[in-house]
Every structure is written in structure tokens, then in C-alpha cells.
Amino acid sequence: MSSQRAGSPLRVGILGAGNIARLHSVGWNEFSQNAEIAAYSDVDTVRARYMSDTHTGGTAKTYDSIDAIVADPEIDVIDVCLPHHLHVDAVLKAAQAGKAILCEKPLCTNLSDAAKIRETIASTGVVFMGAHNNLFTPSLLEARRLISGGFIGRPFMYRTIEVFQSRSFDPWSKEASATGGGQRGWRADLRTSGGGELLDTGYHSTYRLLSLASGDRPVEVTGFLSRFLQSHLPTEDTGHVFIRFESGVVGEILTSWALDVVGARQFEIEGEFGAIAGSATSLSHQLYRWPEPATRTYPAPATFTLEIGHFIEVLKNGATNAAPIDDTIRTLQVIKGAYLSAKLGATVTLPEDPAGVPVARETAVSTPYSVQVPDEVLG
Ligand SMILES: NC(=O)c1ccc[n+]([C@@H]2O[C@H](COP(=O)([O-])OP(=O)(O)OC[C@H]3O[C@@H](n4cnc5c(N)ncnc54)[C@H](O)[C@@H]3O)[C@@H](O)[C@H]2O)c1
To answer: Going by CA atoms, what residue is nearest to atom 39 of ligand 1?
Structure first.
């Protein structure tokens, strides 16, 4: 980032002027003392112009490509809001141009590109943050505080849930969506999406699970994928993923474009002394033998705005990055592990290097909670 502008508002270039760019624009505009949207870039220049008019009164410049926006010397920050297959090119070029980067999920679509991104960020020294907006949900932050404060003792399992029954999604699509459509366009093409629901919306439930585990390394993954509702997709609309962490704690992810869950629950933690469960707007905490949980409610959080406010703090005041490169690569590795597992019909092992490609399991990882199945119970 250009140091000569250290005291001035950051000049932000938003790359991709679609659905999520709109929410990011609202977020950046909340911090107008510290950041200013300077440009939009989209192959569809009508969209870029529309965003500029709507969110900056037409002051933001418009471009039509990745190259054009990263070449603008006045821009300090590139906010990547593109379809998945374009993330690697956008991040590499932005880093090489010395820009700070906020990148929508997923980081990219494969682990070798992730390793390339990690090397380029290290060699250029730019600041990078994954746009893991759901990390900023107050109920999740409070749950993490309760866990690290020892309120439920040793954790035994974490469960995260990210689901919505999609019937209409792409606001730019001309396709009928009322008949169970949705998730069309680039999301329905593996060349542009890189995967199905698990790589897309499932990214949220995966980084949420890893944040609850707080540094405990995922060592084994079992994935179980289904296509319940979105029959036009080339792969899954739903993932069930089981994870063994190094400590022995078990993680479970439910992620879906086909299901809804009662109460919009997003996570649960079960531990030695009790359990915690949360949604975006509530957190319940129930210790062993309490007749009912203690529940606290929160206003619906504007997670994109919270995320952008945090990123500005990272850039301007050196706050600790909530989603550094290795965290987002680890998220991708777990997802890749789940895909390999579903393909093999078996549990897979995750290498220690987050960019290491998952491999078929040879022997089960032994943890303090692992069980050897006695022969007597088989058959
Ligand atoms: N955090 C969340 O909750 C959340 C929600 C939705 C989408 N996303 C992520 O945001 C990203 C974008 O998704 P979206 O829903 O906004 O998609 P979208 O289709 O609405 O927007 C993508 C935009 O990129 C433009 N584009 C395509 N190729 C381009 C190129 N070469 N150069 C410049 N622009 C180009 C398209 O014209 C389109 O306007 C994805 O990574 C997606 O997973 C995140």
C-alpha cells in the first residue's frame, strides 16, 4: 500500500460489480473518514457504472478488466468480488502491483494456486485478508470467548451450519428462478465455480468451524455430498463433513442450498461442563444439569460492514488480521479434503502445511479420544 497516503482515506478499487460488491460498497461507505471507493471494474461496464452512480454518486472511476484496475496507481486496496475462477489472477496481479487485498471466498479453486498466492503475498509484503465476514458475528465471538475462558471445560465437539434453501439467487439472471432454479450462471459451471455448494457457501461453515477450534489442526476429513434440490448443478448442493482435530475434538459441518434448519442455528459446541449454541442473533449457554439455557440476543449484524471496518483497522492501525492467508488456505484444504473423501468413499488425511494436498488415509490418526473398534462389535 502506498505509504505516502498513510494518513489519508484508503482508495479502494472494487473488482467485480455484482451481488456482493453491492454489500461491500455499503460497508466501505460506512467508513468514509478512512476509506473511499475510487473505482469499480467489471467486464460488464454498465454494472460498474451503475455501482459508481449508486454508491459514489458517479465519482468512482470505472474499468473493464482486472489489469486496468490494478494498474491504477491511485488505488491502495483491491477488493476482489469476482467469480471463483478469477480470484487467483486478481490476487496475484493486485499483490504484484503492491495493493492491499480483501478477497471474497473462496481464496481460489485449488491448493496449488493457493500456494502461489501465499508465495506472492510473502514476497511482495502486501496485506491480504480473506473476506470471512461471518467471523464478525457477535454471537460467534462471544462463543469463542466462552470456550477460551474455560466456561464449558474441555471442548468435545463443534458443529457449524450454513444453510439456505435457494430458490432464487442471481439478481442479474434472466432465467426463471421461481421453479426451484437459482444458483445458475457461473455457479452452475465447474470451470467458473470450481466446485459446488461446499466450496461456495460451505466456505463460511468451514472457516467458522476452524475459528471455534482456534488453532487446533484438522487432521482427518470425511465428506458426504448430496444433490437434493438443485438438480441443474454439476455437483453437490449439500455437504456433510466430519473432521477430526489433532486434539481429538470432532467437528461437523452441515452446509446446503437445499435445506433450512429450525431457528437458523449456525453453530454448537459441546464440552465437558456444558454446551453453547448460536445463530446470527442469539447465543445460548447451558451448563450440565441446568434446567434451561441462558440466552442472549443480538441485533442482526451487518457482517460485511464489520469485516470491512476490521480490515481498515488492520491496514491503518496494525490490528491482528482475523483471516490471514494461512487461515483461508486451511479452509480450502478442509474443503478439498471433503471432496476427495466423498470421491474415494473414505476418510482422508490432511497434511500439516495448509497448502498440502489431502491424501487417502493409510492409518487412522490416533488422538486422546480415538477408539479402537473391538472385533466383538463387528459382524
Ligand atoms: N460472503 C458472502 O456471503 C458471499 C455471498 C455471495 C457471493 N460471495 C462471493 O462473492 C464473489 C462474487 O459473487 P457474486 O454473487 O457477487 O457474483 P455476481 O455474478 O453477482 O458478480 C460477479 C461480477 O463479476 C463480473 N466479472 C466477471 N468476469 C470478470 C472479469 N474478468 N473482470 C471483471 N469483472 C468480471 C461479472 O460481470 C459480475 O458482475 C464470489 O467469490 C462469491 O462466492 C460471497
So the answer is: 18
Place of cell 477450534: 213
User: CB–CB of 310/34 below 8 Å?
Assistant: no
- Cis peptide leading into residue 351 (ω within 30°): no
Q: Coil, strand or helix: which one is 277?
A: strand
How far away, in angstroms, is 15 Cα from ligand 1 center?
A: 9
| Structural domains of the chain, ranges and CATH numbers in brackets | 3-134+306-323 (3.40.50.720), 138-300 (3.30.360.10)
Whether the CB-CB separation of 284 and 278 falls below 8 Å is answered with yes
The DSSP symbol for 134 reads G
Nearest-CA residue for ligand 1 atom 10 is 81
pTM metric for this prediction:
0.95
* pLDDT per residue as tens digits for the range 160-196: 999 998 765 544 445 544 333 356 789 889 999 999 9
Residue 303, ligand 1, Cβ within 6 A: no
Cross-strand bridge partners of residue 269 = 158, 276
